[in-house]
Amino acid sequence: MLLTVTTTHRPATDLGYLLVKHPDRVHQFDMPTGTAFVMYPEATDDRCTAALLLDVDPRRLRARADAFELSQYVNDRPYAASSLLASALAKVFRSALRGACKERPELAAEAIPLEIRVPVLRGGAELVTRLFAPLGWTVTATAIPLEPQIGGDSRYVDLRLAGTHRLADALNHLYVLLPVLDDGKHYWVAPDEIEKLLRSGAGWLAGHPEKVLIARRYLAHRKSLATTALELLDADQPVTEEESELPVARKAPLAGQRRDAVIAALAEVGATRVLDLGCGPGALLGALLKESRFTEIVGADVSARVLEQAARRLRLERMPQRQRDRIKLIQTALTYHDARLGGYDAAVLMEVIEHVDLPRLPALEASVFGGARPGAVVVTTPNAEYNVHYPGLTGMRHSDHRFEWTRAEFAAWAHRVAERYDYAVTIRGVGDPDETTGAPTQLALFTRTEVTA
Question: Domain range spanning residue 305?
């Protein structure tokens, strides 16, 4: 399957800086379902095109339980754009999706003329237009005809988009809407997928006239997840059952249970000045602000774009000054010592460590437990043993996870860190536990020994 991005912004070859891919080379990436390539079929000062080609290996595809016997090999997955292409886009253009560009930061923040083509896409011209046109794109969706002997049009279109956008915004539009148009995901959709949707949809999804359809399809028609996502998109005007056609979940989503567990742990140690490390788009920050006991809250993340999303989500510009004085957002890398993080009562690493490459994890430990050295640290991470309860899940819960630990592995890590940096640690589960596999999320509460002695 193929996706191309073209710009005529001069010099057009600066597209290589924005994508962090040199135009003179062919770049290759291993993917769970095949191999991704990035190449530049044209690269001049006047016009530059980057092509993302995903070569899908049918042997790596997971066949649906209700599919026919050879469906793993006889399908449209290698050709029609889907969540497979969205996942490749997220891995290959990770920096560009965040709007990060060391060499051309001013260009990354600028809206530039873009042309995007997806030659084979499900969905039909009418739906494609309904999804992309409200975002400021000029949409040309040409139906792909069936074989002449059959006649008529297929369910696929050749999509062309033209508009002036930040490249990061354009890529996030594609990242969300490609699987929406395909109406399927190639991996198990867990509650944490809500955060991914909110992060990629920041600044445009809340006002989209098709946000209900987008949420439902992106979250694989899991009604409780879609309802939660829609309510989070518009906290001031919660989506009603009639509007969304989705029933309210009977159980609190795991993401909400996790936030509640973190806040309870912070209250347990009496923390008032708190760091949210790897804060993302601000889900936990919003919950912390609702608790008056937290007098100083700092959200830290490596991505400037994500911090902008958090600021918009929290409505910092419209926040009363008394509230605004309680919160601060800072950009920093957690694998390096930052003196600004020192002196706090507690730090939170909520669903962060599993996104760090294992060889880099000791650097994060040294930065947080050794450098910042807060009075307490709260860490949450998935329990790999619980994954058997997710039907169809064959790997980790998210493609961006570098690892997922069993309860024994997490406990071994937590006790090793506690011993090395002079902390005491207790471990507990979050979410409805299973008698055999435990709870879906693991939580470790570290308390500095000289504080508790």
Answer: 254-452
